[in-house]
Amino acid sequence: MKPLYFIPIALFVLLAIALAIGLTLSPSRIPSALVGKPAPEFEVPDLYIEGATLSTADLKDGRMKLLNIFGSWCEPCKLEHPILMILKNEGVPIYALDYKDEADDAKEFLETRGNPFERIGVDEGRVAIAFGMTGVPETFIIDGEGNILYQHIGPLNTDVVRHIILPLLKGEGR
Amino acid sequence: MRSLVFILLAFFSFLAVEPARAIAVDEDILENPEDEARATELMKEIRCLICQNQSIFDSEAGIARDLRKIVRERVAAGDSEQDIKALLVSSYGDWVLLKPPFNIRTYLLWLAPLFFLVLGAFLALTRLRKKQGVIKNEPLSVAEKARLKKLLSGEDKR
What we know:
With 174 residues, chain A is an alpha/beta fold. Chain A has six helices and seven strands, in the order αββαβαβαβαββα.
């Protein structure tokens, strides 16, 4: 058989491989384009402290930290909440954005379940878009200079905490 | 016959109606109709990040509404189409645009169909040419004609 005859089947095999790999990918949520870049400029009201704001400057405090986006209305956020409490007890600084939420509902959520966050900013939706977030929950790892090192989409799980978050956080050495 | 025409007309009349848009009645449309038109055209080219087969113009998702607000603000502020698209791409990457831009990474995407068409045409033509070369169109010789006659009349005993 002439070698030319194998071209269609070779192309088919290549296409089949590409599609098979595609099936294993999860395109349901688009990752932020800002991973590896500085956090965007933002300023939002603090959930608890009247007149105070949470802004980009707060992210540049010299510490490795997490930025979590959540809502009291969000079911998967309830699932990851215990992990956030554990991280807080380990001494991990966690800032939060309360997304498309009612202040009273958010406060009640945190009172009943515990508050793992040092500071919470209230976001109508703009800051999430600036960060390249597409929904809740998401968690960013942010370094002391305000650069975004990593994004986790969806609720946190023990694997990502053990293998990615804690190593990155401890890597900076505090 | 007339009832058939009527039925067909009734059936296809939906084409004459503008489909109901997902945009809520209380959404703040820009005052300047030209601006609103530009904003609308732009919205149709931006992907809803949750319902990813829809544009933000069509989608009812909360994030789509937020993005529509941002597009309207930027258009009213005088930003160019390029600027607004660049702003969204800086947050979400090229995938946020429904029409992928023509750059290094996507030129394969754009050119692949053309490439396969050309390849297919080339293969088809070379195969055809080869087949035609095999068929001889020379007329039969005298001896061959005689032999053919014998065969056809059955004189040849198998």
